[in-house]
Amino acid sequence: MQDIGMAKKDSEATSDSGIEAKAGDANYEYVDIKDLEGVGATIASKIKNAGYADIIALATANPMDVAEVCEIGEPTARKIIAEAREAAKMNFLSGLEFEDKRKAVQRISTGSNALDILLGGGVETQSITECYGEFGSGKSQIAFQLAVNVQLAKEKGGLEGHTIWIDTEGTFRPARIEQLAISKGLDPKEALQNIKIGRAYSSDHQILLVDKIPELINKDPKIKLVVVDSMMALFRAEYVGRGTLADRQQKVNVILHNLQRLADRFNLAIYITNQVMARPDVMFGDPTVAVGGHIIGHVATYRVYLRKGKKGLRVAKLVDSPSLPEGEATFQISADGITDAEEESKRK
Ligand SMILES: Nc1ncnc2c1ncn2[C@@H]1O[C@H](COP(=O)(O)OP(=O)(O)OP(=O)(O)O)[C@@H](O)[C@H]1O
Ligand SMILES: [Mg+2]
């Protein structure tokens, strides 16, 4: 699918924020797998189809695996991996450099102060934030709001940034973006122009779209947010029955690690949504659990459970975070988007 390739022209991309794209990863230079010595288009596509999204993934791959999936000899695979290692310039960071990298972390406001505070100041770059919850709980609405808010000035909770949106359920709604943009005083058409949408039709297609991200950022360094709405829908539909579960989880694992690498390298915020499924074994408390289970739990930096509250309110619970306490925040969804819950007295 080509839509997602429609990044802006290079001339526009060089305008300002190249510095920010680099701040997240001073050691990184974009090199496509096919440009490595000894790798043609055919081998490159085999490598990518096998789930090695970029040169870093290839650089850390096992030569025997690469030889097998690409149907090449092991010495050739070793040579290609060595090339990838050279191109990737994989260096260690000193503690100070690491601290500098952390200083480059930026945050996008969700629109609700309470929810921002719960997340430590908004949705963070260099991290994966996962929202899971039942239908209508607001997972996609938060994504719409973030894709608009990221475009705002920094003092208004944005990063003057653009978005890549991977839509696996066909639920992206341009009209909703326009509505939210107008409410924030943005030009609605421009706001839409700043979002690149890739519709994924299969889990393999979803993997390929994620692989496209470095190329898109190379063309448009203003990209600061990647949305995957939703992460598991296609996997869930395709992998039925327990026999294929390990295979499914392995692929999900590859996507999530690729996303995390991209977040680190380009200082991106990654926002993924996830469905829940019933857990018949739970007798007390909430009998639902996120699809994809432990795999996502191990990779996502922030996990937020959304549920519908009273009078149309939504309650977000921070389930997992490296440094923040567990807690809850209440917000509401209206025509104007995500905001703090109005006080009880003001509500109808
Ligand atoms: N324009 C709007 N004005 C007011 N509320 C809205 C508007 N658009 C959506 N909503 C609210 O958001 C809810 C839908 O939330 P959302 O689409 O984010 O759910 P979801 O968690 O992504 O669910 P699913 O699992 O079905 O994808 C609606 O039920 C409604 O309450
Ligand atoms: Mg949704």
How are the strands ordered across the major sheet?
5-4-6-7-3-10-11-12-13
The biggest beta sheet, please? 9 strands, mixed
* Low-confidence region ranges: 5-28
Distance between the termini: 46 Å
Question: Would you report the number of β strands?
Answer: 13
Helix content: 40-55%
**Rounded to an integer, what's the Rg over CA atoms?**
20 Å
Write the CATH fold name of the largest domain: Rossmann fold
* Total individual domains: 2
How would you name the oligomeric state of the polypeptide chains in this document?
A: single chain
What's the helix count?
A: 16
Strand content: 15-25%
CATH superfamily (homologous) name of the largest domain: P-loop containing nucleotide triphosphate hydrolases
Structural features, described:
Strand 11 and strand 12 form a beta hairpin. It contains 16 helices and 13 strands. The chain has 2 domains: 67 residues, 5' to 3' exonuclease, C-terminal subdomain (DNA polymerase, domain 1); 242 residues, P-loop containing nucleotide triphosphate hydrolases (Rossmann fold, 3-Layer(aba) Sandwich), CATH 3.40.50. It has 348 residues and is of the alpha/beta class. 43% of the residues are buried. It has a 9-stranded mixed sheet with strand order 5-4-6-7-3-10-11-12-13. The termini are far apart. About 7% of the residues have low confidence. 40% of the residues lie in helices and 20% in strands. The protein binds adenosine-5'-triphosphate and magnesium ion. The site of magnesium ion has 4 residues, from helix 9.
